[in-house]
Amino acid sequence: MDFREGLSLAVVVVVAVVVFLAAFYVASLKPAAGKEYVVGGVRVLSEGEPRAALSAALASRELRVWIVAVNSSELVPYRQMAATEIVLGLSRLGKNVAVQGRVGGEYCVGGSATPVPCLAPDVVIQPGFADAVIILGANVTVEGSDAWMRRMAPSLRELFAWGVKDVASGSAANAGGAANG
C-alpha cells in the first residue's frame, strides 16, 4: 500500500465517522416522547394529547415532585421557582404535593435539607437542553435551562393546572354529589 492509498483509506474512515456522528446527533434531537405540542407557550413532548397525558400521569391526589441537583453545592433557584409554580397550580385543584431535592442521583433531601427516604416522583424537574415538559406514560419531566425555567415558571403553573383541572374538578363534583345525595 502506497502513501496515496493509505491517505484515501484514512479520508474514507474519517468521513464515515463524521457521517455516523452527524446521524447520531440528528437522531438524538428527535423527541423521545413522540409528538411535539406547544401549550400556553410551553413546548410539550408527549406520546398522546398533552391534556389527557398529564391527567393520566397526575391522577393521584398525592403527588411527589423532585428537583434534581447535580451535587449538594449546586444552587437551583430557577428549578425551585418552577417547582413552586407547579405545586401552586396542582394545589389549587386539591392535589397534595410533596417536594424533594434529588442530589447527585444518590439521595433525597426534604425542606430542612436533611437526607430523607426518596419517594417515587410523579414530576421531575431537571437541568437539560430540552426546554420542554416531557410526558412518557406516568413519567412527567420538566427539563430545561435556568433561563427557560425562570421565563416559563408561571406558564408551567398554568399548564399543570390545565392538565388536571377537569379530573380534579370532576372528582370534587362527584364527591360533593355523593355527599349531598
What does this structure look like?
The protein is of the alpha/beta class. It contains four helices and nine strands. It has helices at 3-29, 50-57, 77-91, 146-180, and strands at 35-39, 42-46, 62-69, 96-103, 107-109, 115-116, 123-127, 132-136, 139-144. A nine-stranded mixed β-sheet has the order 1-2-8-9-7-3-4-5-6. Helix 3 runs parallel beside helix 4 (146-180). The protein is globular and about 75 Å long.
The helix tally amounts to: 4
Helicity, as a percent range: 40-55%
Q: Structural class, from secondary structure content?
A: alpha/beta
Main sheet characteristics: 9 strands, mixed
Number of strands: 9
Strand neighbour order, sheet with most strands: 1-2-8-9-7-3-4-5-6
* Share of residues in strands: 25-35%
SSE inventory with pairings:
Layout lengths: L2 H27 L5 E5 L2 E5 L3 H8 L4 E8 L7 H15 L4 E8 L3 E3 L5 E2 L6 E5 L4 E5 L2 E6 L1 H35 L1
Parallel strand pairs: 2-8, 3-4, 3-7, 7-9
Antiparallel strand pairs: 1-2, 4-5, 5-6, 8-9
